[in-house]
Write a structure and sequence with these properties.
Layout (H helix, E strand, L loop, with lengths): L1 H25 L9 E13 L2 E12 L7 E10 L2 E8 L9 E12 H12 L4 E12 L6 E10 L3
Length: about 160
């Protein structure tokens, strides 16, 4: 009898954990689409040691039918494989359903990476590969939403 009771206790414990996991997943909306983040404008900020800050405006599009409250985000810009800019912010407004939200952030430009990029740019053909990426941590949901936009910048030579 002791063995049967022990198995029942483990089965009950497993059932409780399974129900708890399923309840947590029920809070996630189905088919949540990735927000789109576009770079709107960039201005020089204050230099700090061997780095330069940039004041950046991003335009974040929420293609979902629910508002997305954001706890914070991190972001980076890569040009021709060199990560030139990184930043974080916890001052992101709620991304309303089916809307575009302008967001002001600050990022740090790595001057050593900029030097390598400029050297490579001197040898480059007619276009630069870019990638703007990062993640949004949502207040209501456990899983972060990653975003990425990539393409080429034509130098027009």
């Amino acid at each position: 009898m002791t063995t049967l009771f022990s198995i029942s206790r483990w089965a009950l414990l497993g059932l409780v954990f399974t129900l708890a996991a399923l309840t947590g997943c029920a809070n996630l909306p189905q088919n949540l689409e990735q927000p789109k983040v576009h770079l709107s404008s960039v201005a020089l900020g204050t230099p700090k040691g061997f780095s330069q800050t940039l004041d950046i405006e991003l335009l974040i599009t929420n293609p979902n039918s629910v508002a997305l409250p954001v706890t914070g985000m991190n972001y980076h810009l890569t040009l021709n494989g060199e990560k030139l800019m990184t930043g974080v912010s916890n001052q992101i407004p709620v991304l309303e359903a089916y809307s575009e939200t302008p967001v002001q952030v600050t990022a740090t430009l790595d001057l050593f990476s900029v030097g390598k990029f400029i050297k490579a740019l001197m040898q480059t053909q007619s276009a630069i590969d870019y990638e703007l990426g990062g993640k949004l941590d949502l207040t209501s949901f456990r899983l972060p939403l990653n975003f990425s936009e990539a393409g080429k910048i034509d130098l027009g030579q």
